[in-house]
Amino acid sequence: QVQLVESGGGSVQAGGSLRLSCAASGYIAGSYSMGWFRQAPGKEREGVACIDSVGRTLYADSVKGRFTISQDNANNTLYLQMNSLKPEDTAMYSCAATPRGDYCVIAPGWYNYWGRGTQVTVSS
Question: 39, 63, 88, 104: which could join 50 in a potential S-S bond, CB 3.0 to 4.6 Å?
Answer without folding.
Answer: 104
